Amino acid sequence: MRPPYPPPPERSLELRRRFAEEARCERPDLSTLCLLLGAEADGTLDEAGMDAAQMELDRLAGLLPFRPGGPRAWAVALRELLGDRLGFRGAPGDYQRLESSLLHEVLRRGRGLPILLSVVWMEVARRAGAPVYGVALPGHFVVGFGEPGEQVLADPFNGGRALTGADAELLVAGATGAALDPSMLVPATPLEVVSRILNNIRAWAAARPERSDVALWAVELALLLPAHPARLRYERAQLLVQRGDFVAGAAELEAYAEVVEAVDAPAAGRVRQQARAARAMLN
């Protein structure tokens, strides 16, 4: 199964430096962040491969008609090109593949998770001048075109099928059992998109204990984002201990306990006890 191997340590350090730098830009570039993430997963993705992926997005944008019209016309143009003509879409089996969360692999295979297919839609449409953005519906990411009053939603996982308001309500109800709230339809920022991609990768790895290596780099990239839950440090500490790095894991547990102390002293005590237990494993 691809991707086969992670990059060597020195390459990983450079990728993470660039990822953190891009994430802190005034206007982070979504495709760049996704490709740096992909290179952390797949050691075969070198600079030429990342450049080729960007050029492929440019090429696809060049295949779209020039400014076809309003939001609905843009949605139709993207569906006809990416969904109908080129066959980009998803299937249930794609949820079982790490490649489905990696932009360069989604471009190669034409298959992926809803959020990565949406990244392809967004990046191609953006390059062509479309008013496009991601919409982070609970459980199923889609794309939107146009302003709120004229918003058109499309589902890249289903080949770019246009979504009615009722369709969106069904997606949300199926994922959460709750009603669709207007706040769910606001555009997602690039960092919110990347954070959700990393959450998906962590969930994939959590179901596969033998892939704790993937879980660890996904957590560590998430920690490089400007805003992240403090609890990610606890997750990283647990992974380090699980992987046998007891000293680093214990140190991370103690650092997390310091953060938690002010709001939940008993929880901090429990975390410190875990740190002592991790250190004891060295004996």
TrEMBL record:
What is the designated name of this protein?
Answer: Tetratricopeptide repeat protein
Source organism superkingdom: Bacteria
Q: Which family does it belong to?
A: Belongs to the UPF0162 family.
Q: What is the lineage of its organism?
A: Bacteria, Bacillati, Actinomycetota, Actinomycetes, Kitasatosporales
Q: Where is the Protein SirB1 N-terminal domain?
A: 73-199
